[in-house]
Amino acid sequence: MSETSGRSDNRGLFLMAVLVGVIVILLCGICVAAGLGFRQYVLPNNAMTRTALVMLFSTPRISQSSAATQVGNNWATVTPQPAVETSIKATLTPSLTSAPPTPTFAPPVWIDPPEGKVVFTCSASGIDQLCVINADGSNRRQLTEVGSDVINPSFSPDGAQIIYSSRADGHLNLFIVNADGSNQEQITVGIGNLSSGEISPNGNRIVTASDSGGQETIWIMKRDGSNARPVSSIPLEGKDPTWAPDSNRIAFISGNDGSPQIYLIQASGGNVRQVTRGISGLSGRSDWSSDEKWLVFQAGPAGGREVYITSTDGRDLRQLTDGGDNYAPAFSPDGRWIVFVSGRSGADDLYVMQLDGTELTRISGELGNPDQPRWGIGEIR
Q: Which residue has better confidence, 368 or 182?
C-alpha cells in the first residue's frame, strides 16, 4: 500500500469520528431541552428530580394547604411530607377539638410480686370507708358504706376479718367485719373512745387505745370485746398500740419523756421500755417485722414525713424514704415488704418497698385519699 493511500484512509476515519461526536452532542442537547421542559411543566420548582418523582408517584392527594399548587404554568413552592409520615400523623394525632383521654392507673407488672392483701381507709362521699386491694395492686374494692368515718383498720391473723373503729352512740367503738364486707358487728360499748384496735397474732385478744380515764392509755380485752381493762395498773399515756408476732409484747406511742416516742410493754403489763429517743414528729401506728427484729414508723412534720425502721433495742435506726410526704407504714406478713402512703405523685397513693427502701412501687391510683394501710394474708378475688 502506498503512503498516499494510507493517509487517505486515516483522514476518512477522523472525519467519521468527528461526525459521530457531533451527532452525540446534538442528541444530548435534545435530551437536556426535553428534561427542562418536563421539569418546567411537571415537577415543583427547585425540587431535586428524585424527590419530586417520589412526591408525584407516592404521595396521596392531600389538601391545598399541604401540597404543591399549580397556578397556570407555575407551581407554588410548598414542602410536602413523605407519604408514610403523613399517613402516620393522620392516624395518631387527635383532633384539636377532642378532649385528651383521662389517664387511668394500671397496676404494675411484677416479676416477683408481693403476696397478700391490704386494707385501708378511702374517702367516699366525704366519709372514710373500708377499702381493700391486693398487694400487687389488683382488685381494689370498697367494703363498707357506713354513716361515720372508719379509722385504723387491720386484719385478723388469718385474713378472714377486719377490725376497725367507727362512731356509734357518740363514741368511737370497735367493730369487726368479714374481709368481704359482710357481717359487720359492733363489739364494744361504753368504755370511751377506742382507736387502733388490733387482734393478737394468736387470735385470742384485742389491744386498743382508750380515753375512758381522761388520758389515752393502752387497753386489752378478749376477742369478743369482753373483759376490757388497762394493760398496766400504772398510769401510762399510750396510743396506737400494735402486737408483736409472739403475742406477748405491745409497741405503742407515748409522750412520757416530753415528745412522742416508741415504747414496748409486756401484754401482762410489766417491763415497760423506751425504744426510740429524740426523734422529732414521731406519730401514728408503728408495726413489727415478722422476725420481731424491726419496728417501722413515720416521723417528721406534716407534709414532710418519712418512713423509718428501728431495731427493737433502738440501736439501729434507718431512714427508708426521702421526700414526698411518706406515712402510715406497715410490714407484710412475710416481713419482706413495707406498704405506706406517699404524696410523691402529686396525690396520696399506696406504695410498697422492700426493707432497705428498694423496689419502690406504686400499687394504687385514684383511690380517694387512701390512708392507714395494714397488710393481711390471702388474696381478694
A: 182
